[in-house]
C-alpha cells in the first residue's frame, strides 16, 4: 500500500500538480498556502489574534463564501430561466414543480442572498467596532462601502426576476425613489432646469421605460447576472489585496 | 397577535428575524468584549498583545477554521432552504397594487423615512448622505486610539454615533417598516388587525402654522428657511465654541474642513431624528416650504 502511494506521488504527473509533499514541516505548512492559488489570498503566517473568531467573527469570510454560493446557484438557475415577460414567471413555476431540486436551488439562492446582506452589515459593524478602518486601512473601508452598496443592488435587482407581485411592486416602489432625485428625476426638485421628463430621467434609465415592464426585467437580469457581479469581483479583488497590503488583518498596533 | 404571526411567518421575513437575532447578539458581543478589554490593566493588555501578535501558520490554524465555518454555513443554508420555501406570489399585475406595497426589507428603513420627508430627501439625499458619510468615516475620525481591537472607553463618541446611526436610524426603522406598517402605510401595533379600510384623521401642519403664519406665504418662507439655516449654523458654531473651550487640541488637529464635514453630517443625523419625533408627536409635515422644494 505504502509502495503504491509512494509510486503515485513520485510520478511526473503528480509532482507537476502538487509542488510540495505533505509531511508536516513548517516549510510545507507555508507552501500549502503559497502554492495554492486560492489559499494564497492568505499570508503564510498570521497573528494569533487574526485567527480568533471572537476578533473577526469571520463575517467578511462568510460574506465572500456566500457570494461564491450565490454565483454557483445563480449560474445553475440561469439554465432554467428566461428574462422575458411571457416566460419568467412560468419558469419559476417550472423550477418549483418540474425541475429536480429546482425549488431547493432557488431557496438556497434566495436565502443566501438575504444572509449576505445581513453578514455584510455585521462585517462592517465589526470593522467599525475594532477601529480597523483607521490608518493605514482608510481606503479599504471606502472600498468596503462600495461593496456594501453593490451587495444591496445585487439583491435588489434579483428581487424583480421572479416576475411575481412581490418583486414587481417592490421594484416599483424602489425605483419610484429614483424619479424623486433632485435634477435628474422628473418629480424631484430643480428638474426643470435641464428639462427632465418622465421619458429621460434617472428612473427611465434604470427601467428602460416609464414603468416596470419587459425592458426593466431584461435590465435587472443583465445587471444582476453579469454587470454588478463583474464590478463586485473587481472591487473584491482590490479589497482582499488591500487587506494584505495595508498590514494584514487588524490588531493592536 | 394573529397579524404579527402572519407577518413573522412570511418567508421573506424569516430573514428579518434572523437579522434581529444576529444583530442583537453581535452588538452585545462587541460591547461585551470592548468593556472587558477596557477593564484590563495596562500591563495585562501589553502581555496579551505580545502573545497575540505572535505569528502562527495559516495552514492549519486559520484554514481549518475557515473550512469549518464554510461547512457550517452550508448546513445552515440547506436546513433553512429545506424548511422554508422562497416566496412566489401571483403573476405580476400592474393593475393590481398590493396594499401596503413594500420595498425589499433592507430598504424599508428608507421607505419608512418617506413618512417624515419628501421622496427627494428620503429616497435620494439621505441615501447619498449615508454612503458618503460611511466612506468619510476614516477621514474625519482622527482619534488614533482603538485601532485594531474592541474598546469603548477609548472612543466613546465615535461608537455612540455609529451605533445610533446603525441601530436606530437603520435597523430600528427597518423593523418598524416590516412589522408596524400596514395598509396605507398606517401604523398598526402587532396586536391590531390590518384593516385596509381604516381611516386616520391626520391633521398635518407645517411648522410655521403652529405660530399662526401661513407656510406658503413670504413670511412663512422666510421663517421656515431661517429655522433650517439657523439649526445647522447655530449647531455648528455652538459645537465649535464648545470644542474650542473644552478640547482645543482636538479641534486643532481636526482642522476646519474636517470639522465642517463631520459636524454637518452629525447635525443632519440628529436633524433626521428630530424631524421624525416632530412628525410623530406634533404632526409636523414641513419645516420649510418653498416653490421648488419642501423640507
UniProtKB/TrEMBL annotation, chain A:
Q: Does the keyword Transmembrane apply?
A: yes
Residues in domain Cytochrome b/b6 N-terminal region profile?
19-252
Keywords (alphabetical) are:
Membrane, Transmembrane, Transmembrane helix
Q: Name one Pfam family in it.
A: Cytochrome_B
A GO molecular function assigned to this protein is: oxidoreductase activity
**InterPro entries the UniProt entry points to:** Cyt_b/b6_N, Cytb/b6-like_sf, Di-haem_cyt_TM
Enumerate the PROSITE patterns for this protein.
CYTB_NTER (PS51002)
Report if keyword Membrane is assigned.
yes
Q: Name one GO biological process term.
A: respiratory electron transport chain
- Output the Gene Ontology cellular-component terms: membrane
Q: Where are the transmembrane segments?
A: 57-81, 111-129, 141-161, 221-241
Official protein name in the record? Cytochrome b/b6 N-terminal region profile domain-containing protein
Task: Please report the organism this UniProt entry assigns to the protein.
Answer: marine sediment metagenome
Amino acid at each position: 500500500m505504502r509502495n503504491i502511494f509512494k509510486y503515485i506521488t513520485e510520478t511526473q504527473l503528480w509532482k507537476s500538480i502538487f509542488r510540495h509533499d505533505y509531511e508536516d514541516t513548517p516549510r510545507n505548512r507555508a507552501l500549502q498556502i503559497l502554492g495554492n492559488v486560492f489559499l494564497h489570498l492568505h499570508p503564510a503566517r498570521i497573528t494569533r489574534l487574526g485567527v480568533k473568531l471572537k476578533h473577526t467573527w469571520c463575517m467578511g469570510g462568510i460574506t465572500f463564501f456566500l457570494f461564491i454560493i450565490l454565483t454557483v446557484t445563480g449560474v445553475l438557475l440561469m439554465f432554467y430561466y428566461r428574462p422575458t415577460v411571457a416566460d419568467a414567471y412560468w419558469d419559476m413555476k417550472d423550477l418549483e414543480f418540474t425541475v429536480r431540486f429546482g425549488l431547493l436551488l432557488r431557496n438556497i439562492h434566495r436565502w443566501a442572498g438575504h444572509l449576505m446582506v445581513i453578514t455584510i452589515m455585521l462585517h462592517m459593524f465589526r470593522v467599525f467596532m475594532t477601529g480597523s478602518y483607521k490608518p493605514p486601512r482608510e481606503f479599504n473601508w471606502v472600498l468596503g462601502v462600495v461593496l456594501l452598496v453593490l451587495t444591496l443592488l445585487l439583491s435588489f435587482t434579483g428581487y424583480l426576476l421572479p416576475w411575481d407581485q412581490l418583486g414587481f411592486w417592490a421594484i416599483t416602489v424602489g425605483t419610484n425613489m429614483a424619479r424623486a432625485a433632485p435634477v435628474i428625476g422628473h418629480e424631484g426638485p430643480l428638474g426643470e432646469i435641464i428639462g427632465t421628463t418622465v421619458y429621460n430621467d434617472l428612473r427611465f434609465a434604470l427601467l428602460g421605460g416609464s414603468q416596470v415592464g419587459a425592458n426593466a426585467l431584461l435590465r435587472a437580469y443583465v445587471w444582476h447576472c453579469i454587470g454588478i457581479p463583474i464590478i463586485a469581483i473587481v472591487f473584491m479583488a482590490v479589497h482582499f489585496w488591500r487587506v494584505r497590503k495595508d498590514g494584514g488583518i487588524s490588531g493592536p498596533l | 397577535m394573529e397579524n404579527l404571526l402572519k407577518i413573522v411567518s412570511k418567508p421573506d421575513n424569516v430573514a428579518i428575524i434572523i437579522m434581529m437575532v444576529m444583530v442583537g447578539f453581535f452588538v452585545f458581543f462587541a460591547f461585551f468584549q470592548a468593556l472587558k478589554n477596557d477593564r484590563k490593566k495596562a500591563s495585562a493588555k501589553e502581555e496579551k498583545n505580545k502573545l497575540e501578535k505572535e505569528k502562527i501558520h495559516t495552514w492549519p490554524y486559520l484554514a481549518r477554521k475557515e473550512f469549518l465555518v464554510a461547512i457550517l454555513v452550508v448546513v445552515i443554508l440547506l436546513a433553512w432552504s429545506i424548511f422554508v420555501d422562497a416566496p412566489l406570489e401571483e403573476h405580476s399585475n400592474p393593475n393590481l397594487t398590493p396594499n401596503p406595497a413594500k420595498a425589499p426589507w433592507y430598504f424599508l428603513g428608507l421607505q419608512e423615512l418617506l413618512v417624515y420627508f419628501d421622496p427627494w430627501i428620503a429616497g435620494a439625499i439621505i441615501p447619498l448622505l449615508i454612503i458618503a458619510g460611511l466612506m468619510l468615516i476614516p477621514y474625519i475620525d482622527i482619534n488614533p486610539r482603538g485601532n485594531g481591537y474592541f474598546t469603548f472607553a477609548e472612543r466613546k463618541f465615535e461608537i455612540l454615533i455609529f451605533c445610533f446611526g446603525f441601530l436606530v436610524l437603520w435597523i430600528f426603522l427597518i423593523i418598524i417598516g416590516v412589522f408596524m406598517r400596514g395598509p396605507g402605510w398606517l401604523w398598526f401595533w402587532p396586536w391590531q388587525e390590518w384593516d385596509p379600510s381604516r381611516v386616520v384623521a391626520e391633521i398635518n401642519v407645517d411648522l410655521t402654522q403652529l405660530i399662526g403664519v401661513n407656510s406658503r406665504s413670504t413670511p412663512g418662507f422666510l421663517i421656515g428657511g431661517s429655522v433650517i439655516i439657523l439649526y445647522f449654523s447655530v449647531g455648528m458654531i455652538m459645537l465649535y465654541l464648545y470644542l474650542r473651550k473644552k478640547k482645543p487640541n482636538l479641534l486643532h488637529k481636526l482642522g476646519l474642513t474636517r470639522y465642517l464635514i463631520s459636524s454637518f453630517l452629525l447635525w443632519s443625523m440628529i436633524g433626521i431624528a428630530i424631524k421624525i419625533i416632530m412628525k410623530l408627536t406634533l404632526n409636523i409635515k414641513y419645516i420649510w416650504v418653498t416653490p421648488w422644494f419642501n423640507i
